[in-house]
Amino acid sequence: MLRGMVQRVRPSLYISVDIEADGPIPGPYSMLSLGAAVAGRQDAGGYVAANPEAATFYRELRPSGGEFVPEALAVSGLDRERLLVEGDEPEAAMREFTAWVREVSRGAQPVMCGYPAAYDWMFLYWYLMRFTGESPFGHSGCLDMKTLYAAKARVPLRSVAKRTMPAGLLSRRRHTHHALDDAIEQAELFSNLMGWSGA
């Protein structure tokens, strides 16, 4: 009976998301870029990693808030003045992102995954609700890679950093603070974590 119930659960399609922003919270501050890469799919038979470069999304957005923190801009290297002129309108970008998520996750439930997820999810969910009124992930379709590692490694969450993880779990790609580069890098980390038996 239980086995039959498990098999009826819809698969999950994990999408690694990274954002760059010009401050600590959405609203007064803006999400300036959004990168996403399909990490893999999980069903009752297990997890299957995807090629993280095969299905990706990237947009640079026009700032929607009036404030910014210069140090936050320095991290990403994005030019806020350029984006005020050339950036995509947030509503259009978020509608395109929603359509992309629905396309790549056909037959499965999309789950956003991030490292750490809290900051990226806060901006992503706020932008989706503010500019489209809905989220393809629902209100809680989010998985934090730091928490996943802490649970498998049986260590306190606040002790987790990439430098404390076994080298074999990490992507060989550089963390560049370009949203798409980092989404792809983190998709590889996620797949490695999903295949890791833990401590």
UniProtKB/TrEMBL annotation:
Q: Name one GO molecular function term.
A: exonuclease activity
Q: What region holds the 3'-5' exoribonuclease Rv2179c-like domain?
A: 91-193
What name does this protein carry? Exonuclease
Q: Which InterPro entries match?
A: RNaseH-like_sf, RNaseH_sf, Rv2179c-like
Its source organism is: Streptomyces fradiae ATCC 10745 = DSM 40063
Task: Give a yes or no for keyword Protein biosynthesis in this entry.
Answer: no
Query: Is Hydrolase given among the entry's keywords?
Result: yes
The lineage's top-level taxon is Bacteria
Q: Which keywords label this protein?
A: Exonuclease, Hydrolase, Nuclease
